[in-house]
Automatic annotation (TrEMBL):
This is Dihydroxyacetone kinase family protein. It comes from the Bacteria. Residues 7-209 form the DhaL domain.
Length: 213
C-alpha cells in the first residue's frame, strides 16, 4: 500500500478532530436553534473515534482506502445521530475511490468526493435547498471537480472548493429546513445556518491544511 497516501489520510483525520474540537460548542449552539443541540457532541465523538481508528490502521500497515474504511465505521458507530451515519458514508465512499495501492491523484480524489456526495444524498434523501450538509457538500464537490478539470493541482483545487463550501454553508442561513430534526422548527432557523453544513465547511478547510502540509 501507499504509505504516503495513508499518512496524508491520517493527518487529515487528525486535522478534522482538531477543528471539530475547537468548534464543538458553536456547532451545538447552531444545532440547538432548530434541532436538538447535539451536533457538536456527536461530531466530536465521531471525529475522535475516526482519528484513533485511522492511527491504529496505519500502525497495522493499512493503505489509505482501508484506513478510511476503518475511520468510517468508527465515526458512524461512536457519533450517533444523522450526521454520524452520513460522515460514515462520506469516509467510506472516499476510501473506496482512493483504494490502497497508489498515491491518488487530484482526479481520483474528486471522483471520490462526487461519490461521497451521491452516497449522502442516496442515504439521507436530501437534495440541495433542503438546508442540510448537502448544501455545502454538493457545491464543494462541484467546485473541486471544476478546478481539477481545469488542471489545478489537488491542493489548489481543494482550497478553491473549501472556499465555495464555506460560502455555501453561510448561505444556508437563508434556507428553510425541509428534512431532519430541524423541520418542525423551520421558521426559527431562518437567519441561522445549518449545523451540518457549517461543520462540513470547517472540515474541508481543515483538510486543506493537512494536504498543504
Ligand atoms: P441529529 O439531527 O440526529 O441530532 P446531528 O445533530 O449530528 O444529528 O446532525 C444534524 C445535521 O445532519 C443537520 O444539520 C444536517 O446538516 C444533517 N442532516 C440531517 N438530516 C439529513 C439528511 N436527511 N440528509 C443530509 N443531511 C442531513
Ligand atoms: Mg442534532
Ligand atoms: Mg440528535
Amino acid at each position: 500500500p501507499s504509505r504516503a497516501a495513508a499518512r496524508t489520510a491520517l493527518a487529515a483525520l487528525e486535522a478534522i478532530e482538531t477543528t471539530i474540537r475547537a468548534h464543538a460548542e458553536e456547532l451545538g449552539r447552531i444545532d440547538a436553534v432548530a434541532g436538538d443541540g447535539d451536533h457538536g457532541i456527536g461530531m466530536r465523538r465521531g471525529s475522535e473515534a475516526a482519528h484513533v481508528a485511522a492511527r491504529q490502521a496505519l500502525e497495522r500497515g493499512a493503505g489509505a482506502g482501508t484506513l478510511l474504511h476503518h475511520a468510517a465505521d468508527a465515526w458512524a458507530d461512536r457519533a450517533g445521530g444523522t450526521s454520524g451515519a452520513l460522515w460514515g458514508v462520506i469516509l467510506r465512499a472516499l476510501g473506496t475511490a482512493l483504494g490502497d495501492t497508489e498515491r491518488p491523484d487530484a482526479h481520483a480524489v474528486s471522483v471520490g468526493v462526487d461519490a461521497a456526495a451521491d452516497g449522502v444524498m442516496r442515504l439521507g434523501k436530501a437534495e440541495t435547498g433542503d438546508k442540510t450538509m448537502v448544501d455545502a457538500l454538493v457545491p464543494f464537490a462541484d467546485a473541486l471537480s471544476e478546478a481539477v478539470g481545469q488542471g489545478a493541482p489537488l491542493t489548489a483545487a481543494w482550497d478553491t472548493a473549501a472556499t465555495a463550501a464555506d460560502a455555501a454553508a453561510k448561505a444556508t442561513a437563508e434556507l428553510l429546513p425541509r428534512l431532519g430534526r430541524a423541520r418542525p422548527h423551520a421558521e426559527k432557523s431562518l437567519g441561522t445556518p445549518d449545523a451540518g453544513a457549517v461543520s462540513l465547511a470547517l472540515i474541508v478547510r481543515a483538510v486543506h491544511g493537512a494536504l498543504a502540509a
